[in-house]
Amino acid sequence: MTEERAIFAGGCFWCMVKPFDQMPGIKQVVSGYTGGQVPNPTYEEVCSGMTGHTEAVEITFDPAVISYQQLVDIYWQQTDPTDAFGQFADRGDSYRPVIFYTSSEQKNVAEMSKNQLQSSDRFKDPIVTTIEPAQTFYPAEEYHQDFYRKNPAHYNAYSEGSGRKGFIRKHWDNQ
């Protein structure tokens, strides 16, 4: 079996795990940090905005079961691709939306998908999610892993209270 990796940043990583974790072909979803210059950053360091890292998820998947294109489609439906300065209640560089590609094929898929989303007129503002080469991915502390399972009440309250769930309902539930 061949495995591939996909890395997506879409605001709080707690909210980025569940949509992927429940799909067939997903082997693992890890919350972590990437895109910055500080090795092995802590949550507190990333939140300080001084590391250059963003919160992200690293997804290990079986491309024979779920394609990278399908993962990108799921990604778009979890984020506000028109907000470059954070996601929902989470503001700042460490919450910026990024698709980190691990191959030229992933880059091409992401760029075509972004262009299609822009052309769709689903959003009145430009699609500003960046597409960048993957860098070292640092897993977050254990208490951040599988947060939606470990703390379902907190997770549900946060995903609703942050505005994420309402945004998703408004923009994607009418597909």
TrEMBL record:
Its EC number is 1.8.4.11. The active site is at C12. One of its GO terms (molecular function) is peptide-methionine (S)-S-oxide reductase activity. It catalyses: L-methionyl-[protein] + [thioredoxin]-disulfide + H2O = L-methionyl-(S)-S-oxide-[protein] + [thioredoxin]-dithiol; [thioredoxin]-disulfide + L-methionine + H2O = L-methionine (S)-S-oxide + [thioredoxin]-dithiol. Keywords: Oxidoreductase. Residues 6-156 form the Peptide methionine sulphoxide reductase MsrA domain. The keyword Oxidoreductase applies. Belongs to the MsrA Met sulfoxide reductase family. This is Peptide methionine sulfoxide reductase MsrA. It comes from Enterococcus dongliensis. The gene is msrA.
